[in-house]
Amino acid sequence: ELKVEQNPLFLSMQEGKNYTIYCNYSTTSDRLYWYRQDPGKSLESLFVLLSNGAVKQEGRLMASLDTKARLSTLHITAAVHDLSATYFCAVDRDDKIIFGKGTRLHILP
Amino acid sequence: DGGITQSPKYLFRKEGQNVTLSCEQNLNHDAMYWYRQDPGQGLRLIYYSQIVNDFQKGDIAEGYSVSREKKESFPLTVTSAQKNPTAFYLCASSHPRGSRQPQHFGDGTRLSIL
Questions:
Q1: Residue of A nearest to B31 (CA)
Q2: What is the tens place of the pLDDT at every residue in A68-89?
Q3: CA distance A19 to chain B (A)
Q4: Backbone angles phi, psi at B31, to 5 degrees
Q5: CB contact (8 A) between residue A42 and residue B106
Q6: SS3 for B97?
């Protein structure tokens, strides 16, 4: 059974700091997704990672994938308040897409 | 503009009542999904469908039913057998697995018990 674990589940950080969210998954998969959710809203796709060593960057967010370690990271550089949201990773296997519990990120001004 | 439309945005259910949540997409996606999200929790897969007239149970299918008679539509019925239906329900769609595209999500339906 595929399990997806994120940590931390809650993160409060100051503006301007760097931090990393981790996503571990239990079985092999060839694609991993990162999404953002604002309170009461739907999910917005951030990144799709398709191969070992894949790295994608958008603004202050950078995602990477290590399929051998079954680990993806979402790195936040010089955080700003607008990045406050819940971030989910999701893994695709056998036509099912399984989500982690999410990391609730709160950035203090 | 292409997208996924969920309706209604808010829904209230009485005891013993079945309710149906609508999900329509005009993205020409083959695959559609239903997720349940509880406060402070992740998304849990209820049902999914890769093709018209076919669907599979997800991790928490008990108390729910779906149909997929048209490519564009994937309604979810929350039956009276679902004893704790209060949650935020999200519908998603995507191209077939080989396309390697992310899911697109609707805006969700918030279901509460009266």
A1: A95
A2: 999 999 999 999 999 999 999 9
A3: 21
A4: -100, 140
A5: yes
A6: helix
Does the beta-carbon distance from A45 to B102 stay under 8 Å?
yes
A52 touches chain B (CB under 8 A): no
- State yes or no: pLDDT of B1 exceeds 70: no
Judge contact between A83 and A74, C-beta under 8 A: no
Residue B11 has pLDDT above 70, yes or no: yes
Are A97 and A90 within 8 A, CB to CB?
yes
Q: Hey, is B50 helix, strand or coil?
A: strand
The Cα of B97 is separated from the nearest Cα of chain A by a number of Å equal to 7
Give the pLDDT mean for B72-81: 95
Query: Which residues touch B74 (CB under 8 Å, ≥6 apart)?
Result: B23, B25, B32, B33, B34, B49, B55, B66, B67, B68, B91, B93
| Token pair 């239990």: residue | A26
Report CB contact under 8 Å: A43, B97.
no
